[in-house]
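Q: Structure tokens for this one, please.
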Amino acid sequence: MDITISETFLPHDDPDASLAFYRDLLGFEVRNDVEYRGMHWITVGPADQPGTSIVLYPPAASPGISDDERSTIAEMMAKGTYAMINLATRDLDGVFEQLQAGDAEVIQEPTEQPYGRRDCAVRDPAGNMIRINELR
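A: Here is the predicted structure, written as tokens:
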């Protein structure tokens, strides 16, 4: 089999804050930016990985969910328990310093984990957990 990851979806609730985080702090390129009926879908990704993207989407646009479910999603996003993604870099300390200088919400500083990985954790403006692993 030849399968790759094309896109993953993370919710967002503020297009400007999302762009500032993913484009300006993480350095991802913006691949698409669609506004429809007051909602915004933004596709970003690393410039050197054109086949892999993160689609930042408005969770209110998800079809078939009730108002109660939308409320639950908003609560979970605010607590940082709704969605997460793991990223990786060879320069964990440099990336962490850049995120910290950009006022990202730090959850965990770079740490050696007991399971053999060194990583850090931050939250994006929507509350999504972003763990960044150090490539060795």
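A few notes: Helices lie at 15-25, 67-79, 92-101. The first helix runs from residue 15 to 25.
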